[in-house]
Each structure stands twice: as C-alpha cells, then as structure tokens.
Amino acid sequence: QLQIVESGGALVQPGGSLTLSCTVSGFTFVNYAMGWLRQAPGKEREGIACISDRDGSTYYADSVKGRFTVSRDNAKKVAYLQMHNVKPEDAGVYYCAAETPSYDGTYYYLLGDGWARFDAWGQGTQVNVSS
Question: Which of 38, 52, 95, 112 has the fewest CB atoms within 10 Å, i.e. the most exposed one?
C-alpha cells in the first residue's frame, strides 16, 4: 500500500527558511519521480516542484523558482523541499507527491494546475508565514 507522509511544516518568518521532508513506503522509491504541491488559503492547489527518478532533473513553478529546492535521498527513501526567502504568499498546506516515470523523462506537465496528474500524494503539512 503506497503511503506518503510529509513533515516539517511550521511557522516561519518572512525571509526565513524551512525544510520539508517526505517519507514513503509501499512502492519502489527510486522508480518514481517525486514532487511537491501546495494549496494556499482560498487558492487552487498547484504543483510547485518535481525531481525526476532517472537523473535528478528538477522542475519548478515560477512562483518558487530560485527560492525553493527539491531533492531526494534514494537510500533513505526521503524527498525534501528546502524553502528559502519565504514569502507570506508561500503559506499553505504542502503535499508530497509521487509520479510514475514519464515517457520522455520530463515532468513539466506536473507543475501548476497539472498537479492532479501525480499518481499519489500525502495528507500534507502546514506552513505558516508570519512575523
């Protein structure tokens, strides 16, 4: 049974940093691309980052590019989202997600409103941004 569990959500000050973690079970981690979705209050859910299964290529939504970094540790079966220079609009629930390998090895289609094409995601972890 595929399980995805996020952790690390917290209250962070604007301009601060935070790292989210994602542990998985029930599937072969190295065979899946991993990503992150988020849903801000009153807004649609969006795909914000993804890291491929094959070569570690990363993909970012414009809203987080240059500030967030997605990574993975295949030995530990953990994915991470490092958040830097956090802004108030980054507040929301963050979900870790898994996707079976794409036909061409790219994952741009999972960003933005393409998030629903992920195969599975967890229950989410809350990130609040306030001074």
Answer: 112
Alpha carbon distance 2, 72 (integer Å): 18
SS3 8: coil
Residues 81 and 49: beta-carbon distance below 8 Å: yes
Structure tokens, 30: 């190295």
Whether residue 4 contacts residue 99, with contact meaning beta carbons closer than 8 Å, is answered with no
Contact 47, 90 (CB under 8 A): no
Per residue in 40-82, pLDDT tens? 999 999 999 999 998 899 999 999 999 999 999 999 999 999 9
- Distance separating alpha carbons of residues 7 and 123, to the nearest angstrom: 10
The pair of three-digit structure tokens given for residue 69, joined into one six-digit string: 């970094």
